[in-house]
């Protein structure tokens, strides 16, 4: 699909948010611990919130880019992504989530660099920033729960 109109960009991004919500719901279903399940269900709800924001943009509302830089702890960057299976440890699920957010961030940044349209660039950069925030939250969770326990 060629992303050459704002509507196509928004439809593409909406699809990505739906995919992310499905991933987090899938990870939640694999967790036995209620707190861990809640973390992933919360992220699924956030992704659906992003979808709602994008739908609002389609209806004429603005999407604003925050000036605040998002810290990247790079915890997930050097971890090997585990195979997704029926049952996963919380550690493996967090790694999958970090990798997914990193890929989404790279995708949106790449799309922002590939366009000369200022409106599309703004949308892509805003979406990249949202994905960076998610990655940071997963990295903090990994640091506090996994790295501190070991």
Structure summary, number of beta strands = 0
Q: How much is the average pLDDT?
A: 85
What count of helical segments does DSSP give? 4
| Principal-axis shape | globular
What are the secondary-structure elements, in order, as H or E?
A: HHHH
Largest sheet: none
- Low-confidence parts: none
Rounded to an integer, what's the Rg over CA atoms? 16 Å
**Cα separation of the termini:** 45 Å
Overall helicity? 55-70%
Walkthrough of the structure:
The protein has 150 residues and is mainly α. The chain contains 4 helices and no strands. The longest helix is centred in the C-terminal third of the chain and has 30 residues. It is globular and about 45 Å long. The mean pLDDT is 85.
Task: Write the topology of this structure.
Blueprint: H1 6-29, H2 34-58, H3 90-113, H4 118-147
Helix pairs in contact: 1-2, 1-3, 1-4, 3-4
List keywords for this structure.
150 residues; mainly alpha; 4 helices; globular
Summarize the structure.
With 150 residues, this protein is mainly alpha-helical. The chain is 69% helix and 0% strand. It has 4 helices and no strands.
């Amino acid at each position: 699909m060629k992303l050459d109109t704002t509507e196509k960009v928004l439809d593409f991004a909406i699809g990505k948010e739906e995919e992310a919500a499905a991933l987090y719901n899938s990870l939640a279903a694999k967790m036995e611990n209620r707190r861990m399940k809640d973390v992933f269900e919360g992220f699924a709800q956030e992704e659906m919130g992003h979808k709602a924001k994008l739908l609002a943009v389609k209806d004429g509302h603005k999407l604003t880019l925050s000036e605040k830089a998002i810290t990247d702890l790079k915890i997930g960057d050097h971890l090997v992504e585990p195979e997704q299976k029926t049952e996963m440890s919380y550690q493996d699920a967090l790694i999958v989530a970090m990798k997914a957010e990193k890929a989404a961030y790279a995708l949106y940044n790449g799309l922002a660099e590939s366009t000369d349209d200022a409106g599309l660039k703004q949308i892509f950069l805003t979406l990249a920033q949202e994905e960076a925030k998610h990655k940071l939250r997963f990295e903090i969770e990994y640091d506090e729960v996994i790295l501190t326990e070991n």
